[in-house]
Amino acid sequence: MPDRRIKTIKSRSGVLKGPVSFFVLCCLFFGAATASAFEAKVRYIIDGDTFILENNERVRIAGIDTPEIGRDGKPDQYYARQSKTMLNKLLLGKRVRIEYAGKGKDRYKRIVGWVYLDDLFVNKYMVRNGAAFFYFHKGNDSGRQKLLLQAQRKAYDEKKGFWPVISEVKKFNIPWVGNRKSRRCFLPDDKFAKRISWRNKVQLSNLGKAFYEGYSPARHLNFWPLTK
């Protein structure tokens, strides 16, 4: 029988060709896939978009924002407790799969990720049920962000969760100014609205239009109503 040894050929560029190069590429691919996702058990729910794993790592659910729970005696934002309760019932004590989003961690050293409970996309679930709203980030996966925006439109149209009350707030029903680049929106007299270049400036008839198009209010405006 002839000797059928597999040859490894090195090109002039120094790149390996043949079976060895294929094997190396496979290792790199699967290594990257493993490094970008992991599974862990949820130990504690902080609020509607943040939880703690068994190893004490904090996870911030990517691409969404939820009403804030009041700290140090301050009142909760409307629907904050309901949002936390929803996430608590969904994830507490469960094992989840987390895929890193964007840079993987935020400035607070929290893991930022796309969260899955079996086949359930948790980020989308919270938005679809009106317990969270879509919060655009330039570095996040565009496909998943489109899913979140679609879920938000359906929740808004069907008046799920917080939408019926939020849509009656006075500031909700006046014109806003959007920044096409950041996907944030501002009240017309806000100093940041005045800094938006004409190329990126978008006129929005109301906040409903803004949310429908994927804009979210700048956090410093504090338009969200508080619980009494």
Give a structural overview.
This protein is α+β, with helices and mostly antiparallel strands and 228 residues long. The protein folds into 2 domains: 35-166, OB fold (Dihydrolipoamide Acetyltransferase, E2P), CATH 2.40.50.90; 170-228, no CATH class. The protein has helices spanning 19-35, 80-91, 122-128, 142-157, 163-166, 191-194, 207-212, and strands at 9-10, 16-17, 37-47, 50-53, 58-61, 64-65, 95-105, 111-117, 120-121, 133-134, 176-179, 184-186, 201-204, 216-217. It is globular. Residues 1-34 have low confidence and may be disordered.
Query: Strand order within the widest sheet?
Result: 3-4-5-8-7
**With helices defined by DSSP (H or I, 4 residues minimum), what is the helix count?**
7
Which CATH class of the largest domain?
Answer: Mainly Beta
Strand residues, percent: 25-35%
Name the assembly state: single chain
Name the overall outline.
globular
Q: Name the structural class.
A: alpha+beta
Give a quick summary of the entry.
By secondary structure, this protein is of the alpha+beta class.
Topology:
Blueprint: E1 9-10, E2 16-17, H1 19-35, E3 37-47, E4 50-53, E5 58-61, E6 64-65, H2 80-91, E7 95-105, E8 111-117, E9 120-121, H3 122-128, E10 133-134, H4 142-157, H5 163-166, E11 176-179, E12 184-186, H6 191-194, E13 201-204, H7 207-212, E14 216-217
Parallel strand pairs: 5-8, 12-14
Antiparallel strand pairs: 1-2, 3-4, 3-7, 4-5, 6-10, 7-8, 8-9, 11-12, 11-13
Helix pairs in contact: 3-4
